[in-house]
Design a protein that fits this description.
- Helix content is 25%, strand content 23%.
- 16% of the residues are buried.
- It has nine helices and 13 strands.
- A four-stranded mixed sheet has the order 6-7-13-10. Strands 1-5-4 form a three-stranded mixed sheet. A two-stranded antiparallel sheet has the order 2-3.
- By secondary structure, it is of the alpha+beta class.
- The protein starts with a helix and ends in a 7-residue tail after the last helix.
Length: 314
């Protein structure tokens, strides 16, 4: 008989979802097989705790369990077996059709219409129906473990160049996740067998969704990256080579003669990835004055304004 999931987690039936989650985390950390190698008793208790959280951690399953629609292992309850309102699940005519005698399935009259199962192997009988609704054999039920989902935040540089990052799950486990080169935001990495334990079957998988963090320099626009590139007045007027930071290191770019703020220069193939394709890096020029202006610059500006009056936009 399956145990009560509330008792397994040590919570009351009125416990909140948060209380249930906290109780599971605490027990999972204490009982995890990696922490108790070779301890079969603790391993079995860990499996029961995990199975209990599988029911109570899911709002819909918990509702069904509380209503008696499923048992503690998630199986639908088989109602109406034997006498009473539900009747014989095998049909009213089945009793007489199998005949009386030794080992037979004969109907005995009287109140409630109880059937005589003497000599019948119930496990074998339920097996004829694919094991559906078995209660005596419920502990023999096998099922693949559930998949677990998690989000891993990574840097833009990690997404472009690839990396290995560690993630921790709610049960205390840690896993090293290999981020492929050219990963994109929202990409899901599947780790086979790293999900919830199975019941006599294989474990589920861990599904890791990658989330690329906001970058202090670059802004993502699909596969392209945009950035502001400060340039000096001489470089903007006369042109010249300037240093440009990219996700993979600093490169040099030529600023054309007579450049203005707002002009965009493009570095091909230096952007991010989206849909398996790499975009470009777009550098928006920002003509910038020095923090401290010397007399030479001030004199030049005064002479320029006096001899060549110029108002932008007119």
């Amino acid at each position: 008989m399956a145990s009560d999931p509330y008792k397994e987690l040590g919570v009351s039936r009125g416990a909140s979802a948060d209380e249930i989650k906290k109780a599971f985390r605490k027990l999972a950390k204490e009982l995890h097989p990696d922490k108790n190698p070779g301890d079969k008793i603790t391993e079995e208790k860990f499996k029961r705790v995990t199975a209990a959280f599988d029911i109570l951690g899911d709002a819909e399953k918990r509702k069904k369990f509380d209503a008696g629609q499923i048992d503690a292992e998630g199986n639908e309850q088989f109602r109406g077996f034997g006498g009473g309102r539900g009747g014989n699940p095998f049909g009213q005519g089945m009793g007489g059709g199998m005949g009386g005698g030794p080992g037979g399935f004969s109907h005995t009259g009287g109140p409630g219409g109880r059937a005589n199962f003497e000599g019948i192997d119930l496990d074998e009988l339920f097996g004829m129906f694919g094991g559906a609704g078995r209660q005596r054999g419920a502990r023999d039920f096998t099922a693949r473990g559930q998949d677990v989902k998690a989000t891993l935040e990574i840097s833009l540089e990690d997404a472009i160049a690839g990396a290995t990052r560690r993630i921790q799950f709610s049960d205390g486990r840690t896993l090293d996740v290999t981020i492929p080169k050219g990963a994109s935001d929202g990409q899901v990495i599947r780790l086979r067998g790293q999900g919830a334990p199975g019941r006599g079957a294989e474990n589920g998988d861990a599904l890791i969704e990658l989330k690329i963090e906001a970058h202090p320099v670059y802004r993502r626009e699909g596969a392209d990256l945009t950035m502001d590139l400060p340039v000096s007045v001489p470089d903007a007027v006369l042109g010249g080579k300037v240093r440009v930071p990219t996700p993979e290191g600093v490169v040099q770019m030529t600023v054309p003669k007579g450049s203005n703020s707002g002009q965009v220069l493009r570095l091909k193939g230096r952007g991010a990835f989206a849909g398996g394709k790499r975009g470009d890096l777009l550098a928006k020029l920002v003509v910038t004055l020095p923090d401290e202006q010397d007399e030479t610059l001030r004199a030049f500006a005064e002479d320029w304004r006096a001899k060549r009056p110029y108002t932008p936009g007119r």
